[in-house]
Specification:
Number of strands: 5
CATH class: Alpha Beta
Structural class: alpha/beta
Strand content: 15-25%
Distance between the termini: 18 Å
Number of domains: 1
Oligomer: single chain
Largest sheet: 5 strands, mixed
Number of helices: 5
CATH topology: Nucleotidyltransferase, domain 5
Radius of gyration: 16 Å
Shape: globular
Length: 170
């Protein structure tokens, strides 16, 4: 049996963190870690705990994170701290760690780096039909909330597209 590489993808946010585990052509798990109700000073601790759990549960070979940048305001810099932590943890566990800009991901998924998130989510849902129920929501905040998960799945798909040659039998 051929070994299928497993990817843990993270889309860090200040209020919510999207995550997805993709193994080969399958979406194994995914969701949104809601941080909005936690005090700002405990959010990073909770993210660290969850990331360690996902790594233990799914044993990915690669961790992919949406690119972040340092910020001079400490609580805004926590977004970048998530990415730094994921990178350090990946290196300690001898996992491949990569980051991609959102424009790179949308260029792969949509063919347009400036395409809207909503369109990228529709493409992801077409690839993984089990996600279709998250596309249309009765409230705008729910759509924004689930968009974090779609972005994480798109990160994993982008990484696959540039690291794995296309197969002839698809």
């Amino acid at each position: 049996m051929k070994h299928e590489p497993t990817i843990l993808a993270l889309d860090p946010g200040l209020r919510d963190l999207g995550w997805a585990v993709v193994r080969g052509r399958r979406l194994v798990a995914g969701g949104v870690l809601a941080l909005r109700r936690l005090p700002k000073e405990t959010r990073l601790t909770e993210v660290r705990r969850q990331v360690r759990g996902w790594l233990k549960a799914h044993r990915p070979g690669t961790v992919v994170v949406e690119r972040t940048y340092p910020h001079p305001v400490p609580w805004l810099d926590s977004l970048h701290a998530i990415s730094l932590y994921a990178g350090r943890l990946s290196r300690r566990r001898h996992l491949r760690f990569v980051t991609y800009a959102p424009q790179q991901v949308r260029k792969t998924v949509l063919g347009n780096g400036r395409g809207p998130k909503r369109e990228a989510a529709a493409v992801v849902a077409a690839r993984f039909p089990q996600l279709r129920l998250y596309l249309t929501q009765d409230r705008r905040w729910k759509e924004v909330y689930w968009q974090n998960m779609f972005d994480a799945v798109a990160l994993a798909l982008h990484h696959q597209s540039i690291t794995q040659p296309p197969s002839r039998g698809r």
